[in-house]
Amino acid sequence: MLVLLGSLRPDSTSRRLAEAAVAALPDGVRAEISTLLPSLPHYDQDLDTDTPPAAVRAFREQVAAADALVVATPEFNGSLPGVLKNAIDWTSRPRGAAALAGKPVAVLGASASPKAAQWARADAVRVLQVAGALPLEETVGLASATAALEGGELAEDVRGRVAELMGRLVREPLAA
Ligand SMILES: Cc1cc2nc3c(=O)[nH]c(=O)nc-3n(C[C@H](O)[C@H](O)[C@H](O)COP(=O)(O)O)c2cc1C
């Protein structure tokens, strides 16, 4: 399981959701949060040749090797952050051999507003579908994220919803 995290800051609230997702995975499912997203260049079709930049090659290999993905996104101006869209764009190519193709994905989102990154989550699902991945339609959002984490811990109900979604992510591809 590979987590693609859309926030670069250490105190990120979406990172906390991502960590809850990793903690909720069944024993024996290995998981890591990718550290490669910030090193990807901006997508450039002229760089997308048979010999792409080393960072792109490494990231594509990392995504291809994962059985499933978790996308954890903040909401920036009503959508997903550029760093995440860029990572999706790179792994949506080459057509016919894209690392994202057919990959099951669960989407989590955290935002400052009470709407729990609803637009970012919806956009992530739509963009992943267009890119050829298989995102679960159901997502989990963390509303008023900074305030929600003031006590230090994610609320029990949020952890429960994250765990339920991880269960589906792990189960459903096997059942398909
Ligand atoms: C450039 C920018 C745009 C933002 N736009 C939105 C937005 O459209 N909706 C929203 O709820 N929060 C918005 N926020 C607040 C972020 O959701 C909030 O800072 C969130 O905690 C960032 O995620 P992180 O904690 O994982 O870094 C925005 C923040 C920034 C920096």
TrEMBL record:
Residues 2-145 form the NADPH-dependent FMN reductase-like domain. Coiled coil: none annotated. One of its GO terms (molecular function) is oxidoreductase activity. GO terms for cellular component: cytosol. Pfam families: FMN_red. PANTHER family: CHROMATE REDUCTASE, NAD(P)H-DEPENDENT FMN REDUCTASE LOT6. This is NADPH-dependent oxidoreductase. It comes from Serinicoccus chungangensis.
